[in-house]
Amino acid sequence: QVQLVESGGGSVQAGGSLRLSCAASGIIFSNNYMSWYRQAPGKQRELVGGSSSVGNTDYADSVKGRFTISRDSAKNTLYLQMNSLKPEDTAVYYCKLLQRSMNYWGQGTQVTVSS
């Protein structure tokens, strides 16, 4: 019904940048909330930040000022621009779509930051 596909992960040195994308397909309603989560090895999945369908954004304190979330509603695509990356940003990054009380998850994309 709804599919989310993340892309853009990879390996980068500390201080570098990456841009993740999350493309949503299927039945997408205009009123939804899309967000990024991440999960590091041995840790719980945590919220990175999200965006409403009108572009209001929120961020975890750990990424404020370094990460920027944007979305192209016409393409049902969410982006995560990550700058000044740190080794502690290493994780699998997941995209989530919330609409009509249903959560849909992508398969995740690996981000590795080396020191």
Brief descriptors of the model:
single chain; 115 residues; mainly beta; 7-stranded mixed sheet; 4-stranded antiparallel sheet
Write a structural description:
The structure is a single chain. It contains no helices and eleven strands. It is an all-beta fold. The chain starts with a strand and ends with a strand. The model has no long low-confidence stretch (mean pLDDT 96).
Q: In short, what is this structure?
A:
The chain is an all-beta fold and 115 residues long. Helix content is 0%, strand content 58%.
SSE layout:
Blueprint: E1 2-7, E2 10-13, E3 18-26, E4 33-39, E5 46-52, E6 57-59, E7 67-72, E8 77-82, E9 91-99, E10 102-105, E11 109-114
Parallel strand pairs: 2-11
Antiparallel strand pairs: 1-3, 3-8, 4-5, 4-9, 5-6, 7-8, 9-10, 9-11
